[in-house]
Structure formats: structure tokens, C-alpha cells
Amino acid sequence: MTTGTGSEPPKARKGTRAAIGSTTLAQVAQLADVSEATVSRVINRKYGVAPATRQAVEEALKQINYERPLDNRLVVMLTPNLKNPIFALQGERIENELNPYGLTTIICPVYPGTPRERDYVESLVDAGVAAIVFLSSSNTLRDEDHRVVQFVESRGIPYVSINGGFPEYEAPVVSTDDWRAAELAVGHLWDLGHRRIGLLAGPTGNLPADRRVEGFLQALRRRGVDSPEQFVVRQYFNIEGGQQAAATLLGHEATGLVASSDEMAFGAYRAAERLGLSVPRDVSVVGYDDSPVLDFIGPPLTTVRQPIERIAENVARIVTSLISKRTADNEEILVEPELRLRGSTAPAPSGT
Question: Which residues pair with 175 in a beta bridge?
């Protein structure tokens, strides 16, 4: 191979991976009509490259059949907190799925949409990141200034979202089917004879919460309930929020409660107790998530389980595909939830 003055850059053969040396840098720079320094910045995911320029370089890399080596093996996972066991379980499961590929996962607990979330991402990206997983983080917030994903996009870093995506960007999303989850919970209580069923819903503008409200309303309308909106109370995804929402619904004589998280369901237990009601004799409660502590509370909580194993499998498949520059479907994958029956639901009280 000659590389003297006047020689043409060698073309990468189809089916082989091109090595990025000075000759190949020049070839890519020529194809993309940019400088070799810009090509190097794109390959190493450095800042200071306009999105259109980055895209042109990426297209040129594809033309020469270049695959970026997996020198960066860190996958950053952004999650709201680790106090809720479901996030810790999902993070652990995803880490287990990625580990056989030589990928190391770092879990960053952040409050979605805050400067801390962006600080985590910016500092870790500079250290070298293979991919980012938004685990119920800023990807769940509607009508927010999504500066974090804008930054990730500008650096050309692959990412996948769990339980909601960024509508303005085309990127893979894996979610539990919240509409189906609501149908499972309502259908179970309806079959037990409950007709005054209320929803302890999450905050407005939270994508999974909004979807569960939609599914809940659809489920009741299918069963002939007029104005089911009156049975929806919005609150925070925690015990205190669940307690307040449940107290309101029990004041309206609801006999069945569907909670948008297991923590909210624990709050419903507390609200019922303070009103002198017994679960499930006077009121039945269905949770959501399937936290590992549910068998140890009294009565054990019936809940709709998020299929974290199948979510993790899909996320790992997508992450490894994106890192390897293979195609990943940008259509949202909805994973089927399942109803776990325990002791917190029973036939509706007679006379209701």
C-alpha cells in the first residue's frame, strides 16, 4: 500500500472494518467535505460539532463501512431515585443483561429535568460513554425543555428510553403497556362486583401517569360507566400522595382503588385504616409495579406487575445494536404487564 503524495486513499472493502488511520481520516473528510480534525471529533464524540456536520461525517463513515470500536464500554442509566425498589430492580436487571457484552453500567439517581441530570450526563460523556438509558427519567416528562437529550443528540451518543420517549426525537423506546395495565386492574375489580372504582393517579404531565389515566377511563367507559373522570385523583407517586388521593376517593364511597404505584397503594392502606375501614373487607386495593416487599405487608398487595425481565432484554438488545451501528427500530415496544393476585382484593361489600 502506498501513501505517497498524489496517491488516492484506499477504499474500504465491503464486509471489512476500516481502520481509522491518517489515510482513512482524509478519505472520510473528503467524503463529508470537512476537515480531518472534525472527523476525529465525531469519531471520539467530542463537543463543538454542528448536528448537520456530525450527520455528514457519520454518513461518510457508513460509506467506507467503518464500525466504531467499543473502546468506551460505559452505559449510563438515569433514574429518578433508588428508594423505590422497582427502579433498583430494573437497573440491576439491565446491568445483568449488558454485562456479558463487556459493558459496564453506572446508575445515576437524578430528579428528572433538573440541572443535576444534565451535569451527570455532561461529565460522564467527557469521560467516555457508549450509550445512555433513560429509565423513567426526563423521558417521562411532557412539555419540558429536554436539554439533556438535546446534548446527547448533539454528541451523537446512542440512547434508549424506558416507559416513555422524547416525542420530538426518533429513538428507541421500551415501555410497559400502561393501557393494558389499567384494563387488568379495573377488570379484576369489576369481576369482583365493584362498581365505584377510583384511580390514584400520578402527576399530570408524567407520561406513564397520563397513559394509566387514559387506560383507566377507557376501561370504565367500556363497562358503561358515565363520567369516569370523577373517579380520578392526581397525586405524587409516593405513600403520602397515595394516602391523600385514597382519602378523597373513599370520601366518595369508592369500594375499589387502583393505584399507579405500589407506594401509592401503601398510602391507600393508611387512608383506609385512619377511616376505620378494612382492606379488603371494606375496600379492595390494586397496586402497580410488583415491589419485592409486597408479600410482607398485611394484607399482601394484589398488583399489576411490570415485566422488568423482558424490558431489560429488549433494552440490552437495542443498546448493543446501537453501539455496533446496527439498525434499531424507533417504534415504541410495548411489553405486556401481568396481574399478580394476593390478599388485598375481595368481592365488593354487600349493598354497594
Answer: 334
Contact call for residues 159 and 117 (beta carbons, < 8 A): no
342 within 8 A of 302, measured Cβ to Cβ: yes
Name the residue with cell 354487600.
350
177-216 pLDDT, tens digit per residue, is 999 999 999 999 999 999 999 999 999 999 999 999 999 9
SS (H, E, C) 189-248: HHHCCCCCEEEEECCCCEHHHHHHHHHHHHHHHHCCCCCHHHHEEECCCCHHHHHHHHHH
pLDDT one-digit tens code per residue, 67-110:
555 446 889 999 987 777 888 899 999 999 998 888 889 888 88
Q: Name the grid cell of 258.
A: 387502583
The number of angstroms, rounded, from the C-alpha of 121 to the middle of its chain's C-alpha atoms is 16
